[in-house]
Design brief:
single chain; about 800 residues; alpha+beta; Jelly Rolls; 8-stranded mixed beta sheet; 7-stranded antiparallel beta sheet; 22 helices; 34 strands; about 35% helix; about 25% strand; globular; Oxoglu/Fe-dep_dioxygenase_dom; Pro_4_hyd_alph_FE2OG_OXY; 2OG-Fe(II) oxygenase
């Protein structure tokens, strides 16, 4: 039933009279304009070849924007550009002519009558034979920019057509040879200049800026009662499942997200600067929201769709991209080695580009996320992160009818593939009932919701604040970590202290990552611990330690460097800061210990040593943050690990040694650092005292435990342990050779392995390399140097 309300609402908005189109064109007499260019003088119109060549002599190669970069690449944009400060526009009728054009553009593009357009010169462009500009989209260079105005000066040329497209439609504009040609289009429209085939195309490009000239009267005409009824129906009915199966939802949706047709920047997202049909539909929805008791905001949405797709050309077979097979050099492979078109075994085949000619099948999946929205009081906007479920989405124009900003195709991969991913950016009108306003905004991780809770607390409305805070529980999920989440965490922490409700306070704080905590949070953390007790503090802290992945690793390392300062601030704050400092240090140790244990299991020395060294500074910071008892416990655990742990402990001691001696000795961890230094000296002394390997001793340590319990590894270990055997020839089938390869490589042993491809089965040849000796000598040299440094910087404590 809910889907019916949304479908009917989209149909009603589609039936609304639309104001204008995405592009428009006017032609006027060339006598209205006099244009002068520094270094050239006044341009006679039409522009002829000798004048165009003079313009080129004064111009530079035109550039273009890509993300935050400004680039020059004639494969993308090949034209000449003169900056606007060198161009003067005038003439007795120019201002009046341009004003009339801009008023016609405003009406033709469907902008509301409450705004006026202003044209700001951007560049004078000259296209010679063969020059062009590939399809692109203009960046909005000003908060009020809504589009682009291209004024083509009359000239005798061929080609150079301006093609503008939006929502699956395109319009081709050809410049007049005798008159001024004005073409205007919205900034989010993709457009291109096709190659000039003869002569010179000369244009003046201008930014179209929309400015409010009078306030809206709130009466945009037309009935809105039916729209208001559909809104009421949508928010009264249970949310439905997407495919009509499974357990039905029992609660109505929190919001309605109506997707608009155009793209907007954060700066340009404003009720008075909506484009074309968007302006009409948004105005109707806003009026209907008022009648239905709803609030409405504008938002920016990121949309991804995954389609079943079929390529159009015969270079693709039924399953997608044609598979390429090569004969494997190993006869035992039996033709199972598959190569992709680039010759790489097993590589995924993904292609990006224009897939407009692909045939779409079924929609497999889609994702819509709101990343920004305006505030209901129109006082600005805020960044959010809000996935939108199917039951809340409504659109008159489907995504597939718009032009994606990125597409990616994956061919058939055996059990999946033949899929086309498309990404879109769309604006949206987001509506919700006023009585659900708090929950609808808070679900987006909105700081405004926390400010509202704090306002109730400041006004003494404790019961109201608790009720609203408890309503967050169903969706108060991961809020992030690091500096970006710090303001939100600070607001949540202040509210948690003020609620005086332990369970609700813990719920508010649980979704944050430990990397969010900083010294400025210490007073409120200590106050929360004093109010709710040490058990609450310990349980809350434990929720902040999540797994360290690729995205959080750098943040975790930086946060550990700040941990000593944070714990010191906690211990000196009013309240019970130690109840937070102690579990923070313990949690940091457990997370670091888990990483350390993982590196100890790595057999390849260079890889293991690099990982262990990276843990040195973080582990030193953990010790510096710990109290005396925890630091002693950590030191005891470290001394009980295998001797390879010195690859981490020595960087720990080097980090600590960089602190002044007074500060080093004054920490809670001073005794632990000295204990680790003494342990390292003992291990290094023993290592240096071992006899040097004999010149004929080729023995190596075993390759480690074999988890498969095969019959190969005992023979491998016997070869490795042998003092005299340097080469082993071993007839083995392919799978068994691979197993031996993996045992040697995982252990990082100085043993080469090659396959002699003669006879059946092939012969695996293992050879111990000279690294047996050079590695051992390098280890001894390093141990001697470390021992000298250690005795100088960490002398043993006299007993």
């Amino acid at each position: 039933m809910g889907h019916g309300a949304r479908r009917r609402l989209a149909e009603l908005l589609d039936q609304e009279e639309q104001r204008g189109d995405f592009s428009t064109r006017f032609e006027l007499s060339a006598h209205a304009l006099r244009i002068q260019v520094d270094g050239v003088g006044e341009l006679p119109l039409p522009v002829r070849a000798p004048v165009a060549k003079k313009l080129i002599a004064q111009a530079r190669q035109a550039r273009f924007g890509r993300g935050e970069q400004t680039l020059s690449d004639t494969r993308v944009r090949d034209t000449w550009e003169i900056t606007p400060d060198r161009v003067t526009l005038g003439g007795p009728d120019w201002d009046r002519t341009l004003s009339g054009v801009l008023d016609g553009v405003r009406h033709a593009l469907g902008l509301p009558p409450t705004t006026a357009l202003r044209a700001e010169p951007h560049a004078l462009l000259v296209y010679g034979k063969g020059q062009f500009f590939l399809p692109h989209q203009d960046s909005e260079k000003d908060d009020s920019m809504v589009g682009t105005l291209v004024v083509s000066l009359p000239s005798h040329h061929s080609g150079g057509e301006l093609v503008v497209e939006h929502a699956g439609r395109s319009v081709t504009h050809r410049a007049s040879r005798e008159q001024l040609t004005f073409v205007a289009f919205y900034a989010d429209c993709r457009h291109e200049v096709r190659p000039v085939t003869a002569g010179y195309r000369v244009t003046l490009t201008m930014n179209l800026l929309a400015e409010r000239v009078r306030p809206a009267d709130g009466n945009d005409g037309g009935p809105v009662a039916d729209l208001a009824h559909r809104l009421t129906e949508h928010f009264a009915q249970p949310a439905e499942q997407r495919y009509g199966y499974g357990r039905p939802e029992t609660t109505p949706p929190n919001r309605l997200v109506y997707l608009l047709d155009h793209e907007y920047s954060r700066r340009g997202l404003d009720w008075d600067r909506l484009k074309g049909a968007d302006a009409t539909r948004a105005a109707r929805l806003r009026q209907a929201a008022g009648q239905a008791g709803c609030e409405a905001v504008l938002a920016l949405a990121e949309v991804k769709e995954t389609w079943d797709a079929v390529p159009p050309y015969d270079r693709y077979d039924y399953y997608g991209e044609t598979e390429h097979f090569d004969e494997c050099e190993d006869d035992e492979c039996e033709g199972e080695c598959r190569l992709d078109p680039d010759g790489e075994p097993g590589a995924e085949r993904r292609r990006t580009g224009d897939f407009s000619d692909y045939e779409l099948g079924d929609l497999i999946d889609d994702e819509i996320t709101l990343g920004w929205w305006t505030r209901p009081d129109a006082t600005g906007g805020e960044q959010i992160s809000l996935p939108v479920p199917y039951a809340e989405v409504c659109a008159t124009t489907e995504n597939k009818d718009l032009t994606p900003y990125q597409s990616e195709y994956e061919g058939y991969m055996g059990n999946y593939g033949n899929t086309l991913d498309r990404w879109y950016r769309r604006a949206a009108v987001v509506l919700w009932p006023r009585q659900r306003s708090f929950a609808a905004r808070a679900e987006a991780g909105s700081e405004q919701a926390l400010r509202e809770l704090q306002g109730h607390l400041d006004a003494g409305e404790l019961h109201r604040a608790r009720t609203l805070a408890q309503s967050l529980a169903p969706f108060w999920k991961h809020q992030g970590s690091g500096e970006a989440a710090a303001p939100l965490f600070a607001a949540a922490l202040r509210v948690a202290v003020g609620l005086r409700d332990a369970d609700t306070a813990a719920m508010l704080l649980a979704p944050f990552g430990v990397e969010t905590l900083a010294e400025e949070h210490a007073p409120d953390l200590a106050a929360a611990a004093a109010q709710y007790g040490w058990r609450w503090a310990r349980n809350t802290v434990s929720t902040w330690f999540g797994p360290v992945g690729a995205r959080t690793g750098a943040d975790r390392t930086a946060w550990l460097a700040s941990l000593p300062g944070l714990c010191a601030a906690l211990r000196t704050s009013d309240g019970d800061g130690d109840a937070v400092a102690a579990p923070l240090a313990e949690g940091a140790w457990q997370a670091t210990r888990q990483q350390l244990t993982g590196w100890l299991d790595v057999g390849r020395e260079a890889e293991r040593r690099a990982g262990m060294e990276r843990l040195g500074a973080p582990l030193a910071h953990v010790l510096q943050a710990a109290d005396g008892g925890t630091a002693d416990t950590i030191a005891t655990a470290l001394r009980g690990l295998p001797d390879t742990v010195l690859e981490c402990l020595l960087p720990v001691l080097r980090t600590a040694a960089r602190r002044p001696a007074t500060a080093r000795n004054g920490t809670h961890a001073a005794r632990a650092f000295q204990a680790l230094a003494d342990h390292c000296e003992t291990v290094l002394t023993t290592s240096v005292a071992r006899p040097v390997r004999a010149a004929d001793d080729w023995s190596l340590a075993p390759a480690g435990a074999c988890r498969s319990g095969c019959d190969l590894c005992p023979d491998l270990d016997a070869f490795l342990n042998s003092r005299t055997r340097r080469v082993m020839e071993w007839p083995l089938a392919q799978a068994r050779r691979r197993h031996v390869h993996s045992r040697i490589d995982l252990a990082g042993l100085p043993v080469s392995h090659t396959t002699r491809r003669q006879g059946r089965p092939y012969t695996l040849v293992l050879t111990k390399t000279d690294a047996v000796f050079t590695r051992e000598q390098a280890t001894r040299d390093r141990a001697e140097a470390d021992l000298v440094w250690l005795r100088k910087n960490w002398p043993r404590t006299p007993r």
